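Give me the fold.
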Amino acid sequence: MDFFAAQDQARRLTWRLVLLFLAAVAAIVAGVNFIAALGVMAAGPQFGAAPVAHWRELSPALYGWVTLATLLIIGGGTLYRIWQLAEGGAAVARMMGARRVAPDTGDPDERRLMNVVEEMAIASGTPAPGVYLLEDERSINAFAAGYSPGEAIVAVTRGCMEQLSRDELQGVIAHEFSHILNGDMRLNIRLIGILNGILVIGAIGMALLRGASVGSRRRRYRSDRRSGGGVIAVLLLGAGLTAVGYAGVLAGRLIKAGVSRQREYFADASAVQFTRDPNGIAGALRKIRAHRLGSRVHNRYAEELSHMFFGPVYRLGFGGLLATHPPLDERIARIDPSFSPAHEPPVGSFTPLPGKSSPVTPLSEYQAPAAPASAVTGGSAPEPAEALASIGHPGPEHVSYAQSLHAAIPALLLTHAHRPHSAATVLYGLIMQTAPDREQKLDALCAQEG
């Protein structure tokens, strides 16, 4: 499947998501109407209303107003979250409290991470995504977010950056690039917004329960029994909405599991296809399996973004029915058929990992390596159709070429290319280097800048 076909498939999957969402909304509306009817039946006589023996005897107008209010609340919650994340990947990273890694960072681990991300971007022919770090997370995990490859970001936990070897880190980044290239990111962000509307109902129920509890204590303190029916009605309504809210959480997890689980298998396979090194991503999954923290993320938004991560951010029961990711052992076995859990370290055991080699690129004369055979034929430029087919569809030869190309760039040039104030100068210099009328263009550029 090529880049553009994968994007089309992701857009078609959005309709599946919409249908699942509408089914969940219909169930929530029915539940809220039922709870509202019970509340009215309990509180009616206390306010002088005629007693109602059954919910079917209530006015249809009541159900109409309750339905409208429920839809407005769900729609408002969805639109609010979508508005919050309108900026795309950067907004998701800030939501998680991630710090952007400076392109010219001097930290060895951060420099290595930037190199791996840039190499994958070169290999895939897409813009390099912004790179973010979840400073306080010592587990091994990562995610990609954004509406399009042009504004995508990749975020990794500190444990992922520090505990993985370069090949393992490359496998994780290749997995995340699969999500970028196959259009999963847009679907994932829409899923965040859609499910937020469902969860608002439960939040309102909890607020009503807290308010009714305070009101009940005050009533007992004043020995005022006239408002007892109202408090009971609010308690019933709050408890009912909370129950509906938990049902909404369950529906949200089922939707996330149904949408994302198979896509994780596909991203794992794509990572192996990109790098031709199954040991990289398999090694990363093995280390998650043995790490005492696994891939768990301790963040208030981890549940909301659980479907976006490389590994599961929490542990769930129900036999994995609600899991957003396939079991680790199954993922490893699909990549490495020789894998046997019986011969692996116990799950959750922790072994300090060896240090990593320095990622610093040596200062050397720039010599561009030969482009892969699939990119250049007979020394001539590729045909437009061939170039388009290669976008977003890197192979191992593209990754190898990107690594050698990146490593061959002089360290000083690479440093200045990463700094905003000097990157334009580097670009102008590269353009002027091959221009036949270099002096005239340089004079024109200086006149324009002056």
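The two ends are 50 Å apart (CA to CA).
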